[in-house]
Amino acid sequence: MDIEKILDQYALSYKEENYPPVAGKILGLFFISNQKHFTFEEIMSSIKASKSATSKAVKLLISSGEINFEFLEGNKRKRHFFLDIEGSVDHFKRLIEGIRMQTELYKETLKFRTDENEELSQFIQNVINLNVELSVHAERLVQKHFLK
Q1: What architecture does CATH give domain 3-83?
Q2: Interatomic CA distance for residues 63 and 59, integer angstroms
């Protein structure tokens, strides 16, 4: 598979997290490249995206903590973007916390439900059970792989 196809696959996979395709391609670029830093222009040309789409995706990825930037010696005006490993681990933790918060909300929701729609109530209970297991296992995996 060539680089362009792999970047397209990153775009599709991150779309499942509601990221715009350009954001997925940017993350893919960092993962696939041995180069640690990219300027904005290098990102834009590497993923073949417009300035506007690249700018929006970079802002999103910075706000999610998955990428960051620094100013390198010799050029204090140009930002050099990099995959923020610590920020990416924190992103996993926030996803897990989001699952936990939703689980608590679903538990509270069940208190308001009657037996009128048992199918939906059972579905909500199944979601609670799934989320509890997911969050427990995901937390263990984050600990195992990133927080040794």
Answers
A1: Orthogonal Bundle (1.10)
A2: 6
